[in-house]
Automatic annotation (TrEMBL):
Residues 1-29 form the signal peptide. SUPFAM superfamilies: Periplasmic binding protein-like I (SSF53822). Belongs to the leucine-binding protein family. The keyword DNA damage does not apply. It comes from Enterovirga rhinocerotis. This is Amino acid/amide ABC transporter substrate-binding protein (HAAT family). Keywords: Amino-acid transport, Signal, Transport. It holds the Pfam family Peripla_BP_6. GO terms for biological process: amino acid transport. The keyword Transferase does not apply. Residues 33-363 form the Leucine-binding protein domain.
């Protein structure tokens, strides 16, 4: 081969090598930011939860960007105000069309999550759910929709279990002698969670003295308070949003009715707004909930670092100690960005789906103690519920042992105004 021939071939070989190098890289390694659309109720009735969830995701985005992003690419989080189901549909399509978003997360409520995820699936985008708990969320045969958070059963089962394993003893009773009242607002959230609680109570041999549904839009729960007074339960298990949760506590106080124990099931009982509304009367109330915290001894070393960063950054930005919704948002964001997008072989939906199906993240990898492993329907099998209690107007994990940060207090509940 002549020198001239070699000279003519070398550029071709170099070009071929460069092309091979480009083709062999994950298609995700492209220029430009990684775009994520957050579909949450940021105004309206669900805005308390929506903003807290979104803020948690936002802290995760900030932390990952400050650590260098994903493969050197920054993450940009777009807001979509899904304050109604129709608004969620419109905002999902707006971010798809105008911003080119192909990855979505949400949504705080099942009503929003069901339709936003449907729009994402219809358009071939990837949807990552954190808080919508409707049991049929993952039963629709969608390929690109995953729920890292709990289903309704995950919120409904821990309450009766805690009654049987711990609360009965604190009330100096056998679990077989305990009687509980299960009440709920009548949306899909309330129906699914309370039905699960009823089934679990019966399985454990706990008597259900009352199972009552009501409209979350009601402005008067005094008839329900009278029913509760008449059946005299040892504990109330309630599934409520924020307005009806506050209303019930205020009307029980006005009517001088005080149950020995009160257990919420996340939502209205797991937000700082609940404590702000009823003051010290919040102390002693339990919530069967997403875990807001985990015992640091049970976390991986890098997760302990994430926990410290989250607490520091959230308090610096929002001037309050984060509770359940904020913590959950952070977990949802870290799981999506670090463990799905960061490990995907492409920015396309198929690559993200493959990364989700291959995920095998051990328990203790997220600040609430969770891990991540999906079933064939897209439900995370390593998410679990926790029992938290309001103590000094802060939510503290008291059960299970892996998440326990303190012993329960104020059982049975002291008089109103003495907590």
């Amino acid at each position: 081969m002549t020198t001239a021939t070699r000279r003519s071939i070398l550029p071709m070989l170099a070009g071929a090598a460069a092309a091979t190098s480009v083709l062999s890289r994950p298609s995700f390694a492209q220029e430009g930011p990684i775009k994520i659309g957050g579909i949450f109720p940021l105004t309206g009735a669900g805005s308390v939860f929506g903003n807290q969830n979104f803020q948690g995701v936002e802290i995760a985005v900030d932390l990952i960007n400050d650590r260098g992003g994903i493969n050197g690419r920054k993450v940009v989080l777009f807001k979509g105000d899904g304050h109604t189901p129709q608004a969620a549909i419109s905002e999902t399509n707006r971010l798809l069309a105008r911003e080119g978003v192909r990855i979505f997360t949400g949504s705080s409520t099942s009503a929003v999550g069901m339709v936003a995820s449907q729009e994402a699936e219809r358009n071939g985008a990837f949807y990552w759910e954190g808080m919508a708990v409707a049991n049929d969320f993952t039963a629709r045969g969608f390929k690109n929709v995953f729920r890292v958070g709990l289903d309704a059963g995950g919120l409904g089962r821990p309450a009766p279990l805690y009654v049987a394993e711990a609360l009965a003893g604190l009330l100096k009773k056998s679990s077989k002698d305990i009687r509980i009242a299960i009440i709920a607002e009548d949306s899909a959230f309330g129906v699914d969670v309370s039905s699960t609680a009823v089934a679990e109570a019966k399985k454990l041999g706990i008597a259900v003295a009352l199972h009552e549904l009501y409209s979350a839009k009601t402005t008067d729960l005094s008839p329900l308070v009278l029913k509760l007074r008449s059946v005299k339960p040892d504990a109330i298990v309630a599934t409520q949003f924020i307005n009806d949760a506050v209303l019930l506590q205020r009307q029980m106080k006005e009517m001088r009715y005080r149950p020995p124990a009160f257990i919420g099931t996340s939502a209205g009982h797991s937000t700082l707004s609940f404590a702000e509304a009823i003051g010290d009367d919040v102390n002693g109330i339990f919530s069967s909930s997403y875990p807001n915290d985990a015992n640091p001894d049970g976390l991986l070393p890098e997760t302990r670092s994430d926990r410290e960063e989250f607490l520091k950054r959230y308090q610096a930005k929002y001037k309050v100690v984060p509770a359940v919704q904020e913590s959950l948002g952070f977990v949802v964001g870290m799981a999506l960005i670090r463990d799905i997008i960061g490990k995907a072989m492409g920015a396309d939906t198929a690559g993200l789906r493959d990364a989700a199906l291959a995920a095998d993240v051990p328990a203790g990898s997220y600040i609430n103690g969770w891990g991540m492993k999906f079933d064939e329907k897209g439900q995370n099998l390593r998410a679990f519920g926790s029992m938290v209690q309001w103590q000094s107007r802060r939510m503290v994990s008291v059960y299970p042992a892996a998440n326990k940060m303190a012993d329960p207090i104020l059982v049975p509940l002291p008089a109103w105004g003495a907590r």
